[in-house]
């Protein structure tokens, strides 16, 4: 696999390995140090067992999940036993933290209820939790309410993901509001006693997201489907360049240095979702990345080749954090969750990548 990945990348860019930073010790109550290497995975909590068992006409989503069979069964996301089994897989994968896809909703077995269970279960598994707030396009008044609810409720929870004592919050579609407007959101939170560590999720947007550094402490690109494989290393290095430039020119003035967060992904396939088959997104039409292919293809390319390729590209940019996109976004076929089709292949590949990223001994 390494021969295939490295040769594919080297053809375009002469890939060089990233420099490994050493994680520093920190007070556990303050969470991670700014210089610690952290591995975070997106976690989705919207599944109903009927999604696997019923067609769209019957109120399910069976068509979009055809051919996928999680080892934990056709599950309900609100089931504490399922969350426990997922966290066992996350521990096996050596994941540090989860970004739970969340929006404010008080309905029975809804996002608020499930998030409580995730936080409760995370403590025993030494996992840290934040949200990927899905309503970044909402009116500012709604955003103020929702982020205050989340941060005020969990900021002192032992499972809260923190950097230097600041609770982390991730915002999806943050580009819908200006940097000045987002600074206002975080200023209002600070006046309420909450000094957050905000991350702009999935909003790098070909470099335009760099204007949001300052209000946000990191940029991240959720899906890599729009990036040609042989250009992925250059893409990651360009992202790192924006962070370096900001840290040299703007951070000294505001005292808020930024981090480079790089995404790795096992694959992607939105053509499985009937509502997206006519999508114009993705490098070659509809969003799709074959799990067994990355760059130049060889007859013996294994399952996991694309995942390996994204990891090598990420490492070329010397990231501070790795984001795994995703643990269980099965509708987009970007999951590493253990399934009957793939077993623990992607869980164990993740553990291998984490050890390399952190400079740990391989097993």
CATH superfamily (homologous) name: Glycosidases
Terminal residue distance? 18 Å
Counted beta strands: 11
- Into which percentage range does the β-strand content fall? 5-15%
> Which residue ranges are poorly predicted, with pLDDT under 50 across at least 5 consecutive positions?
2-26, 278-285
The CATH architecture can be given as: Alpha-Beta Barrel
CATH class category: Alpha Beta
**Overall helicity:** 25-40%
Largest sheet, strands/sense/barrel: 9 strands, mixed
Shape descriptor reads: globular
Name the structural class: alpha/beta
- Which fold name fills CATH's third level, the topology? TIM Barrel
Number of helices: 10
Pattern of helices and strands: HEHHEHEHEEHEEHHEEEHEH
- Number of discrete domains: 1
Q: What features would you describe in this structure?
A:
The protein is of the alpha/beta class and 363 residues long. It has a single domain (2-16, 38-358), classed as Glycosidases (TIM Barrel). The chain is 32% helix and 13% strand. The chain has ten helices and eleven strands. The protein has helices spanning 2-13, 49-53, 80-92, 111-122, 140-154, 179-191, 232-249, 251-254, 305-315, 345-358; strands at residues 38-43, 97-102, 128-133, 162-163, 166-172, 197-201, 218-219, 259-264, 268-269, 288-289, 321-324. The strands form two sheets. Strands 1, 2, 3, 4, 5, 6, 7, 8 and 11 form a nine-stranded mixed sheet that branches. It has a two-stranded antiparallel ribbon with strand order 9-10. Helix 6 (179-191) links the parallel strand 5 (166-172) and strand 6. The chain is globular and about 50 Å long. The model is unreliable at 2-26 and 278-285 (pLDDT under 50).
